[in-house]
Model the fold of this input.
Amino acid sequence: MGIFQFKNVSKVFGGLRAIDDVSFSIDQGEIIGLIGPNGAGKTTIFSLASGFTPPTSGKIFFKENRIDGLASDQICKKGLCRTFQVVKPFGDMNVLDNIMVGSLLHTANMKKAQEEALEILYTLGLVGVKEQMGKNLTIADRKRLEIARALATHPKMILLDEVMAGLTSVETREVIEMIRQIQKRNITILLIEHIMQAIMSLSDRIIVIHHGQKISEGNPKAVSNDEQVIKAYLGEEYHELT
Amino acid sequence: MSPRTEWIRGIIILVVLSLLPLIFQNPYTMSILILLFLYAYFALSWNILGGIAGQLSLGHSAYVGIGAYTSTVLFLQWGISPWIGMIVGAIFAAFAAILIGFPCFKLRGAYFSLATLAAAMILQIIVENTNNLLGGPRGLEITLLKDAPWQFQYTNKLFYYVIVVLLFFSVIGVTRWILHSRIGYYLNAIKNDQEAAQSLGVNLTRYKSIAAAISAIFTAIGGTFYAQFVLYINPEKIIGTNLSIQLAVMCIIGGRGTILGPILGAVLLVVSAELLHLYMGGKMIGLDIMLYGIILMTVIRFEPQGIYVLIRKFFNRFTRSTSPFRDGRSS
Done:
């Protein structure tokens, strides 16, 4: 049994089936890419997984415990932490304090929390801005901060929601490297991304969502050759390129 | 700040505080001085929930009322010392805060403020309609005992001055402790972004309740002090909406979430209200409330974070010359 599972999960908003009977399983230490066109339901899957909204039906398991129905702070305490597509830095706190909010989850000792936050600050290359207020950061640093805060909670698994969107190609490469570093800490990663090059090279497996349904799952090569995926998301041009 | 300068600063503050009563010897100015500290104390108490946690309560007079009425009723009915009544009132207030908070903390922004306002209004109506025990709309008079320190009464105002200064420093101490501990970080995170805080493992209701309870405890203690100082309480003055708004406005004008801000706000409002009373007498009742409104609008227009931030910015212009731009590490 994997570390994380969706079992026949559906989510209905009014008359809309945002997520329709989706099942998948993720093993410890894997990097899984979640792709699909805009509005397919990728972020809804994150919201369900992190407890921001409960599923209408189905079950979600994390480390063999059911987590659907739990509040997001309880899910975070179990070791599953998310980042937000629309980044949410604590604007009136500086970068170091932002990260300390994360590390305070497992220690009430301020000194220890600060040391740990500094360590993460160094590994993610945020040292230069550690005194800056969250609201004054560039978009690239905001995205880094989002990952840093999540890492500070000592997660077993992390959900990254479009952490590369809006970055330059140099910054994107930095983030790819960052994600590889996270994997080395034996943290399981589920990531949503639109940058194909990045997700194809990072992911062990890819799950494709379309109209709230899982239409394909497999290794990057197999998925990019899948007829349905090409039709729904990648397009003929991408296929010809590869 | 090094421990040494901290010590020196502490000694200076102590000397000034002990000299103040000598300067303001007549009972009138002494009363104003005491009220000044009391309002600063109230503003700092409100600040724990409204400033640090960012939950704009407009019902804090409820806790003033709970503190004042608990100690007074216990004293009048059963002869229990208001010192003990003060502690009982604080405990009641903490429970009330959690009780009010439980449904209200799910609400955000203005809805939360309105719910707390309603809670205080309900309490006021209950008190006004309980004639036997709580004295109804006329209020309660506390039996004059003259020099009875164990019954929280003394003819010399210095007695109250010492107590209010101690209360004032206790709330500053607790605020500083909060700001530098996990609770403070969590409350600050909640103020900035609830969803992000929750996703990092912060139990929103729990931490808001802690802030509300601490805030209510201090506010209620101030309520008992006020009752013993004035020896008369009535629902409109003590639980009324006016007081709730005053407490919030002092803090907002001064600077929410800081320590000096609420003190500044309290000084500004108490002094301006007293000056108005002094020069206008009873001619234009309600003028002080209008003045609060004007000050509030002016401050919010130029610096929504309060006067404290405005002053700090002004001084930073002279003392600091560091560039606001970060080093060119990456673009």
Remarks:
- The first helix of chain A runs from residue 42 to 49.
